[in-house]
Each structure stands twice: as structure tokens, then as C-alpha cells.
Amino acid sequence: MEAAAIPANAAHHDHHGPPEANRSSRVDPQMLGMMLFIISEIMVFGAFFTAYFFIRVVHNDPWFPINGVELPKLVAGFNTAILVSSSLTLHWAETCAKKGNRFGLKAGMLTTFLLGLTFLFVQINEYVHIGFAPHDHAEGSIFYGLTGLHGAHVAIGLTLLAIVNIRAFKGHFTPENHLGINVPGIYWHFVDVMWLVVYFTVYIL
User: Fold this and answer.
1) Which stretches are annotated as coiled coil (predicted)?
2) Domain spans of the chain, in order of start
3) DSSP secondary structure letters along 158-189
4) What ranges in 59-137 are assigned the alpha helix state H?
5) What is the pLDDT of residue 1?
6) Which ranges of the chain have pLDDT less than 50?
7) CATH classification code of 28-58+74-204
8) How far apart are CA 105 and CA 107, in angstroms?
9) What is the pTM of this model?
């Protein structure tokens, strides 16, 4: 009886440090963290949209054109198609990762990164040729504020996609372990959806 108690005591003393955290949620901690981060980002965008609608409703001046300058709706529409396409290629890459298709994973992730980079380049080029600056009028300030905020999120997303691409080409992901694609993927899909809201609100309405 005493001999049986000794291994039990020894096993009890082998554990060092605090006990493991109780996971009451079935959501993976990394995924939960990303979802909470996205919720906070929605609040940030909400503050900018509040300023936008305040200007549209309260300000007496027209939204655009202003001083003969119109927003480049056609270019923005083309850029929107590019960003939406990047969500599709990302979904393809995620599906390939789950099926163990390494070529599809690498091709999809690389295409997604290049499409996102193209979107950011076109947006910067739009700023260069648009014909007004943020300090010219309130409408210009909120235009640059909203589109620039989104552009910053695209830049962050591209950084995450670059990391995923490097890991994909090194063979880090498997059908059983591809959380490193899903978590950044959630962020990139959020960036795409948010751009649709920005595009239809700022350029179309």
C-alpha cells in the first residue's frame, strides 16, 4: 500500500508552475484573439464613418465633385475587383492546405499577396493624381482618413501574408495543422469586407 503511494506522490511533485488554464471556449485562443482584435478595429472604423456621415449630413457643401475634382470611381471599382479577387485566391489556398495540395497552397498565397500589393500600389497612385490634399477641405480630410486607415490595414495584412508565404514555401503547413493560415486569413477577409463598405460609402453614395 505504501509502495503504491510513493509513485503517486512523485508524480504529483513532478509538475512545476501554475496549473493549465481552463479553456471554457471551444474557439482556439489564436482565433479568439484575432476575432476580438477585429471587433476593436470595427470600432475604429466606426469613429471615422461617424465623422464621414456628420460631414455628409451637416455640411452644406456637396460631397464631390469639389472645385471640379471628382473621385476616381472607375479606378476605385477596378481596385475593388482586385481586392475581392484576393479573398477568392486566399480561400482557394486555405482549401488546398486542408486537402494537402502544396502547389495550390503556395500558388494561392502568392497570388493573394501580389493582388494585395497591386491594390495598395493603385491606391497610392490614386493619391498622387487625385487633385486635392487632406488639408484642402473637410471632405478631403475624411476621404484620406478613411481610405488611408484602410490602406494601413492592407499594409499590415500584407505583412501577415508575407509571413504565411514564407512558411508555406518552407513546408510548415499540413492538412492537420494550418491554423497559421486561417488566423491571418480571417484578418485579410475583414480587410476586404471593410473596403467594400468604404468603397460604396465614399465613392458611390
Assistant:
1) none
2) 28-58+74-204
3) HHHHHHHHHHHHTT---SS--HHHHHHHHHHH
4) 73-99, 102-129
5) 44
6) 1-6, 8, 10-12
7) 1.20.120.80
8) 6
9) 0.85
